[in-house]
Design goal:
Layout: H1 11-17, E1 35-40, E2 43-44, H2 56-60, E3 63-65, E4 70-71, E5 76-78, E6 88-100, E7 104-114, E8 123-127, E9 133-141, E10 145-151, H3 156-161, E11 170-177
Antiparallel strand pairs: 1-3, 1-5, 2-4, 6-7, 6-11, 7-10, 8-9, 8-11, 9-10
């Protein structure tokens, strides 16, 4: 498959925009989920330095991180594609809502009914009691617990959660998604 990628755009972003489902998670060069094999051509990373998710040995083997790689010539890449499936949904009980530095909030949920399969770096859609939905970042997950975080921009997240969101109350959760918004 052939796609066009501008020199200031990363390969992963262009592939996802073209509808090619590629493995990825953090999109920041840390998790290495998008690591692929560069078969031919040349790339450059922002600031001219490799991101933390790839080692010099991997670079010497021709591996690249698609989320950070900017094309500097025509490229041939061998990448892992994903199977696209419908998002799963669940009901979760709020275990805790904790303030974090820089105005963020952490919400810990226990999944009580249904199932959500998410990894840190992905997003889940959370519905409050009024039915309003917001996508929040997953920071930890286990068999029956999920931890999500978001910046509480001037108290907006607390307002969105509602006055009744406290430990013991319920939220609906669906996911996982690779983008922070559904657009």
């Amino acid at each position: 498959m052939e796609i066009l990628v501008s020199p200031d755009e990363n390969v992963l972003g262009a592939a996802l925009a073209a509808g090619i489902p590629l493995a990825h998670s953090c999109r920041a060069g840390r998790c290495a989920s998008c690591k692929s094999k560069l078969l031919s051509g040349s790339i450059e990373y922002p600031a001219g330095t490799p991101p933390p998710g790839i080692t010099p040995v991997e670079i010497a083997r021709g591996e690249i991180l698609l989320c950070q790689a900017r094309p500097r010539s025509d490229l041939r890449i061998e990448a892992q594609r994903l199977t696209v499936r419908a998002a799963l949904s669940a009901s979760g009980e709020i275990l805790a809502i904790d303030p974090l530095p820089l105005g963020a909030l952490r919400v810990r949920l226990r999944i009580l009914a249904g199932r959500v399969e998410a990894r840190p770096g992905q997003f889940v859609e959370v519905r409050n009691h009024a039915g309003d939905a917001e996508r929040l970042a997953v920071t930890a997950c286990g068999a029956d617990e999920l931890e999500i975080e978001a910046v509480d921009d001037g108290g907006v997240l607390r307002q969105w959660l509602g006055k009744h969101a406290k430990p013991g109350s319920w939220l609906r959760v669906a996911g996982a998604f690779d983008l922070p918004r559904g657009d």
